[in-house]
Amino acid sequence: MLIKTCLSIASPAGCGARLSVLIFHRVFATPDPIFPDEMHATRFDEVCGWLKSWFNVLPLDAAVTRLKTGTLPARAACITFDDGYADNHDVALPLLKKHGLSATFFIATGFLDGGRMWNDTVIESVRLTKLGKVDFGELGCYLVNTPGEKAVAISALIGKIKYLPVAARLANAQFIADAAQVVPPDDLMMTSAQIKAMRQAGMQIGAHTVSHPILARLSDELARSEIKGSKDTLEQLLGERIGLFAYPNGKPGEDYTPASVDVVKGLSFDAAVSTQWGASGNGDDVFQIKRFTPWDRSRTGFCLRLFTNFART
User: Fold this and answer.
1) What does the pLDDT look like over 144-153, one tens digit per residue?
2) Which of 55, 130, 68 has its CA nearest to residue 287?
3) R_g of the chain computed on alpha carbons
4) pLDDT (tens digit, 9 = 90+) per residue, 23-58?
5) Range of the structural domain that residue 261 is part of
6) Are residues 206 and 89 part of one domain?
7) Is 138 found in the same domain as 101?
8) H helical segments located in 114-257
9) Is residue 14 part of a domain?
């Protein structure tokens, strides 16, 4: 009761409301030994319970409308997922339904039906390699015997190719797979049928580009093609208009620019989300809605970090 009272003070109803939007990516069925801090089923179940207890969790489109009109309820929150991982359907969806919660899933459409994101090529190549040490040429040489060593190698490799042009990123990711002597799995992302099932279960679907590029590195024409391509594919798949968008990576000024925002507006989206920390208030730009997720494992720590997020601007 005390937590809800404090949250109501930090995020009251009406024009003074602050919208908390939480962002997730994967929800593993069991804890991942390489990434032990990543979300998994048991922890997500717990987090869903906290959110259900503390917040008024709304569909994102309804929250955006009420944010603009100053009619949000106290303790307003939304749940979002980026990229379109298969575990969103297999693991997260049953837990959301268990708690009676809605969420919005932003889909990078180029990876549907057997595709794989470049970073997952890197992750799974290092995860699955049978080698104890791998020489990745100009990208470095790494020990990969233990989960800890694999985590160090993955972080370093992703950091070195993350901001390369799309073609160069893909080429480097494939080089890493070849050097690790691994054929990465092709079932990490959702299928078209799973996207339809998510929508039929009451979840919302949003666009997230086709190939998950860094929009700030693209021309306006290419950015428009990426964003529109994702929107068009999802609209054709679901037979309905797609009004929500998430910027890949999502850091303002680094991953997308004001020109990117203009492209999104020009394609008749209703709102878009970033990864800038904070909670959005009445009058804030609904094409740059803030998102944040506390990483604390304890109930108290999770709650306290939520409170600090209200103080960010």
Assistant:
1) 999 999 999 9
2) 68
3) 20
4) 999 999 999 999 999 999 999 999 999 999 999 999
5) 19-113+187-310
6) yes
7) no
8) 118-128, 147-161, 166-180, 192-200, 220-238
9) no
